[in-house]
Amino acid sequence: MVEVVADVHERGSxxxxxxxxMGAELRYRRLxxxxxxxxxxxxxxxxxxxxxxxxxxSGRLFEQVERLRxxxxxxxxxxxxxxxxxAGEEHSSAVWGSLFSIAVERGVAxxxxxxxxxxxxxxxxxxKREQGQRTSKPKVRxxxxxxxxxxxxxxxVCGLPGVGEELAERLxxxxxxxxxxxSASRAELMRVEGIGRLxxxxxxxxxxxxxxxxxx
Length: 216
Hints:
- The protein contains 11 helices and 6 strands.
- It is an alpha/beta fold.
- It folds into 2 domains: 3-133, Rossmann fold (3-Layer(aba) Sandwich); 149-208, DNA polymerase, domain 1 (Orthogonal Bundle).
- 32% of the residues are buried.
- The mean pLDDT is 87.
């Protein structure tokens, strides 16, 4: 029987139950990387089209892809729904740029499925292929390789609101160190291509607002 490991947070998506109804032996685990593991070297990050856009504009998308690529030899990003419809004309260029960046520059496959049923079917077919051809059962990997110093610096800067990898690279090229990026004024930040008044204000707010402990 084909085995699939699903992240516990995927329970509510409906995809795991569809996989089970299609004949997969399903196990839930708390995954630190990816949403579904189908073999020792292959994992799938499933995103709705809306979630893809949200993670793209928050800067989380490329970080997630990098962690997936570091942990698994054959990572897959599976998008549920229409990216073109979700993005519209306004964000079409950004979406295409991100897809090319993930697939061409990072070598990570990006696939699209129209529905939850198609997502489940795609994951099942991938699991059958991996476990049939490679006789490899799912193996969860928790800890990606250690990041290089350059990657750590870029990772730090990507934590700023609205800053993805490309913008982090431009910031580091201009200011040379993460500390100088964090110390830059709004006016200095706005001299970097891609940072307008609103984004500079959001960055300044995160860096300057006093931390308040959760009352709970």
